[in-house]
Design a protein that fits this description.
Length: 793
DNA sequence: CCTACTACGCTTTTT
DNA sequence: GCGTAGTAGG
């Protein structure tokens, strides 16, 4: 009995086809990760390949982590030498070693979208470009797609000749790229582009990695873009042992430059390629698969395949219609609550939706019923203002050339260095061709600074002092020191007392992350930590052990599976989105349909499609027809269980209706006219024009409670009183976490890092608990319940 | 230089 | 409806 006996015939074949290019068309739930991990095991155990020579590339850290774990389990300690990595972190590792050959320093910083926007803003100002006509977002997108297509500045300029608009883009692209270089920074796209540049320019470097990575695996190949394709192509150029795994039906990242042709034309690029299809699905019931197949077969650009399962038919796909999104959300929360009472677990459920904005209503209803849930996505932890502030300090300490970072913190907390002073510094820096920080160091050479001069001096001294400390302190200690030295807590309190506690917790969590990072990595440098932090996605942090309902976008859900799935907001104009409906490019609708396919195939046992006839979007109530994707599912696979709202007749009439938009929406004119009713959907203003004056401070914020409770123990009895319903989560933050302590003084609790201990004291601090725990091994620690994830034992 | 108010734009998806 | 960015006034 070997580990390979559990594989089916196609899977086995994929595992033993180790030499040459291999395209693995792996349908949803067909066990592709199993195949990949077994293939790696086979290479090592049966073919005598050194783990050192194996590379596996994924898109997310989470996927990389999972694969790493499974490979470890399969082959043990040796697996540590297999390189399992995301595209971006692979590139970071390579660039840290060789980027000096391209004229950057090895300690380059990585810019996220927020940083990019700041650079673009400064660039536009410098070039006198009106950001009203040329939107920053638009500019970023244009530059990003150019990079994804491996078009460099000169290439872009060439292609822009004769086109005024594109000439403006070209000038921004050039200036942007020069700014990044000056700041010794790379954006996400650069990480890939520069690696390709490096390989193309330096054959000797490419040789190293071609020799190193003799067997290359790429997961989610359908989502690769041109740069990634080129990167893989270059790496596999010598040995051509390239195994790519993907499903063209799950290609959903075109907006990010993913090129579906990479998978569709694989055999064209590699004529000697073997192609193996994995069509047996181990996840879903036949009914769910039939529904998925029925939807996806409306697409034209795809490789023919058909999923089947040995599982039975299972329940029908349920359709639930509601009058409003409010009722829809309430139904979902109510039903989950009911099912959990009957014995299901929270973690059995996922609610998937098209846009992040939809999470709001759902969250509210979950809170009202006390269901523990996690929202994946939305604002990334590392994109929060307080985290970015601290990271900007670290970046300034680490890389003095990072102007974006300096500008962010130069006056945070307020130290009297305002726009005017900053401008003088910048002028000086430009004149003397030095960095902004150098200009600050030479502040006494700049005339007209007046009192600011002393303030700048003390800022410079502050940063220098941090740099000195950074040599001996751990990252975590350095963060604490920064927070204390600049009196960041007081700054948060002054700025917005309501959110200060939450924000401080986030800062504490950052410290925790630094500690964990140091524990799990050897010889941690500040540079490493900052890079790690820059490349973390939200989905990476979802912990499987947590028993909570997951709310997320369809995009985030890819690769996951749940016994029971709700697809909410199945409406024309929402899903498929309006943008797509108005696009002249029919492939966009196909991408949207693939998204539907991804959503449907997440469900193992039960799939529920919900649809609201009216929905508030951007302050307007919109009425829409049922999604065409629902209509593409054969009626015999559906059952209407609207949970009490008896509307079957009308509902099915709408479904059967030959008018593609049913009787529920108004005229649909694709005339291209904007606004009003011309987009085919009835709209009207819900609110009277004479709004209440915004006196009395803030508009009534959504009532959010940063707590949940077990369904059978309502939160009130947990000691979190009704007062806590008052808005806890403030601007910019999201991701409501469960922290109702399920323990009290005297209880034994366990902590992920510190092990077990006894609760010595608990103190209410605003919306949180400060818990004092005496740990068996680590002594007494005081921590906030909200993020310590203490569990009673 | 900082604060408070207004106006705008946003919502498709994110490594 | 909400958050951000920009502007006017202190």
């Amino acid at each position: 009995m070997s580990i390979y006996d559990t594989l089916n015939r196609e899977q086995k074949e994929a595992v033993i086809t180790t030499e040459g290019p291999l395209l693995l068309l792996a349908g949803a739930g067909s066990g592709k990760t199993r195949v990949l991990t077994h293939r790696i095991a086979y290479l090592i155990d049966e073919c005598g390949v050194s783990p050192w020579n194996i590379l596996a590339i994924t898109f997310t850290n989470k996927a990389a982590g999972e694969m790493r774990e499974r490979v470890d389990k399969l082959i043990g300690a040796e697996a540590a030498h297999v390189w399992v990595s995301t595209f971006h972190s692979l590139c970071v590792r390579i660039l840290r070693r060789h980027i000096d050959l391209l004229g950057y320093d090895a300690d380059f910083t990585i810019y996220d979208t927020d940083d990019q926007k700041n650079v673009i803003k400064a660039v536009c100002k410098r070039l006198n470009i009106d950001t009203k006509t040329y939107k920053e977002k638009e500019l970023i997108r244009e530059i990003s797609s150019a990079k994804n297509e491996l078009i460099d500045v000169s290439g872009y300029e060439l292609s822009a000749i004769g086109d005024r608009n594109r000439c403006v883009y070209a000038s921004v692209y050039r200036e942007y790229q020069e700014t990044l270089r000056k700041n010794n920074a790379l954006d996400f796209d650069d990480l890939l582009v520069k690696t390709v540049e490096l390989f193309r320019a330096k054959q000797e470097v490419l040789n190293i990695y071609q020799e190193r990575f003799q067997y290359i695996h790429v997961d989610e190949y359908q989502d690769t873009n041109t740069v990634q394709f080129e990167l893989v192509h270059l790496l596999a150029g010598r040995y051509r042992n390239l195994c790519v795994v993907g499903d063209d039906d799950q290609s959903i990242y075109k907006f990010r430059g993913a090129n579906i042709r990479n998978i569709l034309d694989f055999e064209h690029y590699f004529p000697e390629a073997r192609v193996i299809k994995l069509e047996q699905n181990y996840r879903s019931t036949q009914t769910i698969l039939d529904a998925a197949n029925a939807v996806i077969c409306n697409n034209t650009a795809r490789k023919e395949k058909s999923l089947w399962t040995a599982k039975g038919k299972g329940d029908k796909v349920r359709l639930c219609q509601f009058d409003s999104a409010f009722e829809e959300a309430d139904f979902i929360a109510e039903e989950i609550q009911r099912k959990v009472r009957k014995g299901d677990s929270y973690r059995d459920f996922a609610v998937l939706y098209r846009t992040n904005a939809q999470s709001r209503l759902l969250e509210e209803k979950m809170i009202m019923r006390g269901l523990p849930y996690t929202v994946v996505g939305g604002t990334n932890f590392y994109a929060r203002a307080e985290i970015k502030d601290i990271l900007a300090y670290l970046k300034t300490i680490d890389n003095g050339r990072d102007e974006v970072a300096i500008r962010r913190i130069i006056n945070i907390p307020k130290r009297g260095i305002g726009a005017a002073t900053l401008e003088k510094l910048e002028d000086f820096a430009e004149l003397r061709e030095c960095s902004l920080f150098e200009a600050m160091e030479r502040a006494d050479e700049i005339s007209g600074l007046g009192k600011s001069s002393a303030k700048i001096r003390s800022f410079v001294a502050l940063i220098r002092n941090f740099r000195k400390k950074a040599l001996t302190m751990t990252v975590a200690e350095l963060i604490s020191d920064v927070v204390q030295s600049v009196e960041y807590e007081a700054y948060l309190q002054d700025n917005d007392p309501d959110s200060a506690d939450d924000r401080l917790e986030n800062v504490d969590e950052l410290i925790t992350k630094a500690v964990v990072y140091a524990e799990t990595h050897e010889e941690v440098t500040l540079t490493d930590f900052l890079a790690e932090v820059a490349l973390v996605a939200d989905i990476d942090k979802v912990e499987d052990e947590d028993d909570r309902v997951l709310l997320m976008t369809l995009h985030s859900a890819k690769g996951l599976e749940f016994p029971q799935v709700y697809l909410a907001g199945m409406e024309e104009g929402l899903f498929p989105s309006q943008m797509v409906l108005f696009s002249t490019d029919p492939t966009e609708l196909e991408e949207e349909r693939r998204l539907a396919y991804v959503g449907i195939t997440r469900a193992k046992d039960q799939l529920t499609l919900t649809y609201a006839r009216s929905r508030m979007t951007r302050g307007e109530t919109r009425y829409s027809a049922i999604s065409r994707f629902v209509r593409e599912i054969p009626q015999e696979l559906l059952s209407d269980e609207s949970g009490g709202t008896k509307r079957e007749d009308k509902f099915f009439r709408a479904l059967k209706d030959s008018d593609p938009f049913g009787d529920l929406t108004g005229s649909f004119s694709g005339s291209g006219a904007r606004g009003g009713q011309a987009d085919g959907l009835y709209r009207y203003r819900e609110h009277s024009e004479d709004k209440q004056p915004a006196s009395g401070g803030k508009p009534k914020a959504f009532v959010r409670r940063k707590a949940t409770a077990q369904a059978d123990k309502p939160f009130i009895t947990q000691g979190i009183g009704a007062l806590n319903l008052v808005a806890g989560i403030s601007k910019g933050t999201q991701g409501i976490q469960d922290y109702v302590p399920q323990f009290g003084v005297g209880d034994r609790v366990s902590h992920t890092k510190f092990g077990e201990g006894e609760v010595k004291a608990m103190e209410r601090v605003n919306k949180d608990y400060k818990v004092t725990v005496d740990f068996d091994q680590f002594g007494t620690k005081i921590m906030y319940a909200s993020f310590a994830k203490l569990k009673r034992v």
